[in-house]
Specification:
The structure holds two protein chains of two kinds. Chain A is mainly α. Chain A is built from nine helices and no strands. Chain A has one domain. Classes of the chains: A mainly alpha, B mainly alpha.
């Protein structure tokens, strides 16, 4: 069972490595979206420091949503997905493997890149630390919840826009607690409460989301 | 099955459910009109003026029942979705489809009347308060359901796909309901609770409850009327539909 899990993760990572432009597109979208805000709002560092947590989180949300489309779509188009669902291994495990690979490709680069962009917003080092920690805890939840939407809209016309309509409302708690944790840390209140909530959301989505995604894939792939 | 037990599945087929729904619609519509009229009368003429909020508080008679209905209809949709998943009955999915626009309407009504109430009381149309935000998310969930359902051409598949979406979204309902207790924000706490009773004048409470029942009857009437259209639309190629008196005419 774990061999199957490992194989799927390895396969998805290998495919992503062979076609690097996909990873880079998400990453550059994140960078560009974040760089747009100072241009629109103005370069005052005090304002920027204040809005930074929200801006980073919204950008991460949108970047991870944009990347959802490639989670199942390619496998669905060439029939791999059906073969995966036909294997004796539980579909939940395969979903988890695919989501993990997806997070490693699209989520982790955002986490690693955020300190650099944080410097552009003149964030203090503890704010950057908090930001990285929240992104590290929050982006896996985004991938897990987003997988449900990606599976539901598989093969539909206008799937990309539909995904945003389905998934963004479900992302809201992650956004609130993610940005809230950074703000609480900066203001000296301590972000522990928010971080615990983020962890709770991650655990809940880790248990529930693969179930829903597997069920949705069964509906979509028949 | 022994003849004495009632067959719950009798009305799970569109053929039997269609005439039943047709018979029930006028009853519930009449009930809805009467109840809403009574509630409005009590609300406008009988209920006392609030000593703090003045006359403006009277919007409560629409706002609170509409908010309750917005959450309750979502739960009913989830109930039908679960039934549809478990028993694979066709009417379940149609009921969900028929309820969704009404639920979205009540959610919008709750937000709209809330804005009207918020302007004189809080001095603003909208605040990013926990309860308002979660109600807004509920509205998005309804819209998401309608969008997903209409973009899948095979309606049976649409029913199953949206059932998953609805069950995922159910998480939001307790968050809305308890948001005023969990987060101490601008929206006031509940004035009515099962445990400690109500903290308002009894005429106001009665008006709200009657209005809720009226909205309830209205939702049932509208959902049943809409489900009849849904049934006709989906079953238009079947024999029994072409045999119906209103189709032959």
């Amino acid at each position: 069972m774990f061999k199957a899990f490992y194989t799927v993760v390895k396969r998805d990572l290998l495919l992503a490595m062979r076609n690097r432009s996909d990873i880079l597109t998400t990453l550059f979208f994140f960078i560009i979206a974040i760089s747009l805000f100072p241009l629109g709002i103005g370069p005052e560092l005090d304002t920027l420091r204040e809005i930074a947590p929200g801006v980073f989180w919204v950008a991460a949300l949108l970047a991870s949503m944009l990347a959802l489309e490639r989670l199942f779509a390619i496998d669905f188009a060439d029939g791999t997905l059906e073969q995966l669902l036909l294997t004796p291994q539980p579909a939940i495990l395969l979903v988890l493997a695919k989501v993990l690979a997806h997070w490693l490709i699209t989520g982790v680069p955002l986490v690693l890149l955020s300190p650099l962009l944080g410097l552009q917003y003149d964030l203090s080092s503890e704010a950057i630390q908090a930001l990285m920690l929240t992104l590290l805890l929050g982006t896996p939840s985004l991938s897990l919840i987003g997988a449900i939407g990606a599976a539901l809209t598989l093969g539909l016309r206008g799937g990309g826009v539909l995904v945003s309509l389905l998934v963004l409302p479900l992302y809201v708690p992650v956004l609130i607690f993610g940005a809230g944790a950074v703000e609480a840390t900066v203001s000296g209140l301590g972000g522990a409460g928010h971080l615990f909530m983020l962890g709770a959301i991650l655990l809940l989505s880790l248990v529930m989301a693969p179930l829903a995604t597997a069920a949705a894939l069964r509906v979509s792939a028949e | 099955m022994s003849p004495r037990t009632f067959n719950w599945f009798k009305y799970s087929s569109p053929t039997t459910f269609y005439p039943l729904a047709g018979k029930l619609v006028p009853w519930f519509s009449t009930l809805a009109v009467i109840l809403i009229f009574i509630a409005l009368y009590i609300g406008f003429y009988v209920a006392p003026t609030d000593y703090k909020q003045g006359e403006g508080y009277r919007i409560i008679f629409v706002h609170v029942p509409a908010s309750w209905m917005s959450m309750f209809i979502y739960l009913v949709m989830a109930f039908w979705a679960i039934l549809g998943v478990i028993f694979n009955t066709r009417v379940s999915g149609m009921m969900v489809q028929a309820l969704a626009p009404t639920g979205a309407m009540f959610t919008f009504l709750a937000l709209w009347t809330g804005a009207f109430w918020g302007k004189p009381m809080w001095g603003t149309w909208w605040v990013w308060d926990a309860r308002l935000t979660s109600e807004l998310i509920l509205f998005f969930l309804y819209i998401g359901y309608i969008a997903l359902h209409s973009s899948i051409d095979d309606k049976r598949r649409a029913d199953r796909a949206t059932a998953i979406l609805i069950l995922v979204g159910v998480v939001n309902i307790p968050i809305i309901y308890y948001s005023v207790e969990w987060w101490n924000t601008l929206h006031q706490g509940a004035s009515i609770s099962v445990k400690s009773g109500s903290s308002m004048a009894s005429t106001m409470l009665i008006a709200i409850l009657i209005m809720t029942l009226g909205f309830w009857a209205y939702s049932i009437a509208v959902a049943l009327a809409r489900v009849r259209s849904v049934i006709l639309e989906r079953e238009r190629d079947t024999h029994w539909v072409s045999e119906l008196a209103e189709i032959k005419r």
